[in-house]
Specification:
Layout: E1 10-11, E2 14-15, H1 16-47, H2 59-70, H3 75-89, H4 93-105, H5 107-124, H6 131-154, H7 162-194, H8 196-216, H9 239-263, H10 268-276, H11 294-301, H12 303-315, H13 322-346, H14 355-382, H15 388-410, H16 413-416, H17 418-451
Antiparallel strand pairs: 1-2
Helix pairs in contact: 1-3, 1-6, 1-7, 1-8, 3-15, 4-5, 4-6, 5-6, 5-8, 7-8, 7-11, 9-13, 9-14, 9-15, 9-17, 11-14, 13-14, 13-17, 14-15
Length: about 450
Amino acid sequence: MSAAQTTDRTFFGQPIGVAYLAFTEAWERFSYYGMTALVVLYMVQQLLLPGHIEHVAGMSGFRHALESVFGPLSTQALASQIFGFYTGFVYFTPIIGGFIADRWLGARRTVLIGAGVMSAGHFLMAFEQSFLLAILLLIIGTGCLKGNISAQVGRLHPPEDEAGRTRSYAVFSMGINVGAVCGPLGCGLVAQLYGWDYGFGLAGVMMLLAALTYLAGDRYLPPEAPRRRDRSPAEPLTPAQRRTVAMLILLMVVSIFQSVCYYQISNVGLVWVSEHAALGTPLGDIPVSWFNSIDSLASIVFVPPLVALWRWQGMRGREPGDVTKIGIGATLAAASALLLALGAMVAGPGHVTVLLPLVAFTGMGIAFLYYWPTLLALVSQSAPPRLNATLMGTVFLSLFVSNLIIGWFGGYYEPLGPTMFWLVDAAIGGTGALIILVFGRAIHRALQPAAD
């Protein structure tokens, strides 16, 4: 008997419940990435300009609070700070959402509450007055939904079915990437044709579709996990386990450098493309928001060749270790940022060939494949059993910190100028690569006993 309702139906050879969870996540990611592809441009080009910013409820006090910490903020800097806080906290609140599901409501009710709250947030984005409330609702809703959806994938398999569970997560990840690609394309096109309000509205509709998909698959989903209860004190970690935990936390800290470098393309990267890239075609201008799909598309397209490359290297005993792959990812992110600096250096505004940001954003997507899934796999493999879930959650806190830094650093885009800004962004990614180059072997040796 499976954990969910018994059925002969499968999805890519996996339990049919995976399909409902994958498509729920696909529509949710459609709405998330569709919204993030629009929100910085929306703030810079309309919402935060005179005649509009005065209408946003609470913005005066919120801006005053930010400027009391960061100093006076231009329109672009304020937009960057808001974006950083939003994208940072959506990676923080899933810890709270998981706690709520474990202790009180259960995963299903928490997911449905999250979907409803997120839908309301997306629809409220269509109104200037409710912008900050919409951001708050999106943060809360994501916290309720994201982690609890992911946890249910694993519970579709019995504990001993490790291979099946891994394949299900691969299918589930495909749904994430499909949504991440389609969201900016769909919402960006609608916003360009009909206006910002309709773009945000489409994100809300897709979030409602996510909730309906989840409800439709209810009988195929796993039963609720038992609520956590107080437990007797666990045995202390051994010295080797403490060393492993320390090394994993060090790698999470190092990953912040490449995450800041990589995720900046979704913030200042879109502003730079709108100002510097030649987007005109015989069929009309390319929507700037579409560039937010490029790195996600690369994360789909380049998986098979990258896996084939690693397999080819492995047959010859040359496949990089996990720590080395994380360093390669940092190097690729830095090189991609250097391309943007080069474009800003050699061509004036509106004259950079569209191929340059296309290559740079693709390079960022490949960099992500090298460092982020590898980090997740390394933590899952090496963490002590009783801290495995805790450390997996801690990995996402690195993205919380990264996005806060992205918002702060993005405020320096105008003072530094495009060329220097992207050079500094490349240096940040290069710092992560340099740390791995210097300490990578020591970290690998410290983790090897746990991996064995």
